[in-house]
What we know:
Layout: H1 4-10, H2 19-38, H3 42-47, H4 53-81, H5 83-102, H6 107-135, H7 141-167, H8 173-192, E1 212-213, H9 216-220, H10 223-245, H11 247-253, H12 259-286, H13 289-307, H14 313-342, E2 346-347, H15 349-376, H16 379-398
Parallel strand pairs: 1-2
Amino acid sequence: xxxPRANKVSDPTKVKLPRxxxxxxxxxxxIAIGFGIVAPVLPQFAQSFDVSVTAAxxxxxVFAFTRLLFAPLSGWLVERMGERRTYILGILIVGASSxxxxxxxxxxxxxxxxxxxxxxxTMFTVAxxxxxxxxxxxxxxxxxxxxxxxxxxxxxxxxxxxxGLLAGFGMQLPFLVYAGALVLVAILVAxxxxxxxxxxxxxxxxxxxxxxxxPLRDALAIPAxxxxxxxxxxxxxxxxxxxxxxxxxxxxxxxxxxxxxxGISLAVFAIGxxxxxxFSGKLADTWGRxxxxxxxxxxxxxxxxxLGFTGEVFWFFVISAIAGxxxxxxxxxxxxxxxxxxxxxxxxxxxxxxxxxxxxLGAIIGPIAAGFLVDLFSYGVAFSMAGxxxxxxxxxxxxxxxxxxx
Length: 406
């Protein structure tokens, strides 16, 4: 017979979160709101240098490109310098990049400065995941991943509204505000995340052992890790690629709607994701990682397929919300799965970087492939491709064991 105390310990909602986790969550909100402040202004600022729409779009995509290119370096830095130092250095690089963008004198300077920010972004992203994995109690990994993702989401929702207001005072101001917010984050982390991080209770049994590095080849030998790379790629393709690049065009070309409809659909997608994050992390800790990822892939994949065939604005909004819900269902479980693979007693900079790269790769390839399919066939076929990518990932996950059982 199980005692009440044992039940309390096994309940992930009862696990007390370390202070360091709360610091990282607060920092994530500040980073996201700053990123959101810059997002609506950046393409307009690029076009102020009398360049084409395509050239302005390149300024947006160069950030993701450099993130992908320098992700392996970030993993190496995490293993050599540690998560905390890599996080702070990455934040300061992005801050310097944002400030430099405000003073760019021509298009090419803006392109270079924005690209350099992607290097810092992948550094603090990989380092943050490493810190979350190290400090999170194993029984609460899903809940903590959900909390962290939720703080980013709230910042991304609030940021564009603030950015639009600041742009009225000049397009350079949002970049300077973002840089200031990042300096504040660096100070916050340096102050409240000490160099000698406290050893979590669940890690003390390992304290006498030298912390080992999990080689990438060993992680790739685990079917669940290979599967999580495919689901991360699928989510990047759908949520960060097609949603941002194709949905606005579809709203105009297929629905005959204005840009405000596209903007609302992006917000509705984010709301759907936010709703899922309120419970998906807890379910990932209780039901398991695999069921939540499979559920998210199915919901998001089907919704993206249907989205390309909608003909009314109302249903366009409804399906967008469902697609966002699917993305929110799998997000926390994916990060928790990577945490399970690495464990609290090992470092896995390259393992984390590869996971991040898979999402960035999907976000880069997805829009290009979708645009090609629109030109050859239709929007319906292009959106359906997201469902096909999700199906491939489902097949990988059906053959993998839940990482909680590793």
